[in-house]
Amino acid sequence: MRWAIDGYNVMFAGQKDGAEVIAIETRREDLLLRCRKLKDPVVIFFDASKAPPGLTNDAEGRGKMEVVYVRQGSADDAIVEWLKRCGRPNEVRLVTNDRELAARARTLRAKVASVEEFLKDLDPERLDGMEKPKISNEEARRWAKEFGIDPDAKV
C-alpha cells in the first residue's frame, strides 16, 4: 500500500471560520511529522503557487516520504496525474475530504480515506473531540455528589 495525501486538505480539515490561526508552516511540519509515522511509502502534495520562503525543490525525498510542491496547476490535478503514472493506483490510498478529487481517484481505482479516518488511525490521541469515556449513571451520580452538584439537576 502507498499513501497519497492531499496536503492542504488534511492540514485545514475541520477548521471553522474565526478559528485560531496557526501558522501554515507549523501545520505543514505537523503533517509531515505525522506522516513519518507511516510504515508504507507516502507522497504528500501541496499547492505551492505561493510557495513558502526557502522552498527550492518541487519535490524532496525523505526516505519513504516524498513531498511534492505543485507550482503550476492544482495539487488535485497533480495527484490525478501521479495516480495515472504510478502503475498500480489500486494499491494507493488517497487521503482527502475533497469529493471531486475522491471521485476522480476512484475512477482510477485508487482507494480513498477521509481525513478523519486517516488521523484517527495515524494519531488517535491528537484528534479533537476524542470519544469520551463512558461511565454508568450510578458513577455519574456519585461524582455529582462528590462535587456538590445535585445529581437530579437537569443540565
Description:
With 155 residues, the protein is of the alpha/beta class. The protein has one domain (2-130): Rossmann fold. The protein is built from 6 helices and 6 strands. It has helices at 7-11, 24-35, 75-85, 99-107, 115-122, 137-146, and strands at residues 2-6, 42-47, 59-62, 65-70, 92-95, 111-113. The protein has a 6-stranded mixed β-sheet. The chain is elongated, with a radius of gyration of 20 Å. The termini are far apart.
Secondary structure: elements and pairs:
Elements: E1 2-6, H1 7-11, H2 24-35, E2 42-47, E3 59-62, E4 65-70, H3 75-85, E5 92-95, H4 99-107, E6 111-113, H5 115-122, H6 137-146
Parallel strand pairs: 1-2, 1-5, 2-4, 5-6
Antiparallel strand pairs: 3-4
- Note the overall shape: elongated
Extended strand count:
6
Number of domains: 1
| Rg (C-alpha, Å) | 20 Å
CATH architecture group name: 3-Layer(aba) Sandwich
Features:
elongated, 6 helices, Rossmann fold, 6-stranded mixed sheet, 155 residues, alpha/beta
Q: What is this entry, summarized?
A:
The chain has 155 residues and is an alpha/beta fold.
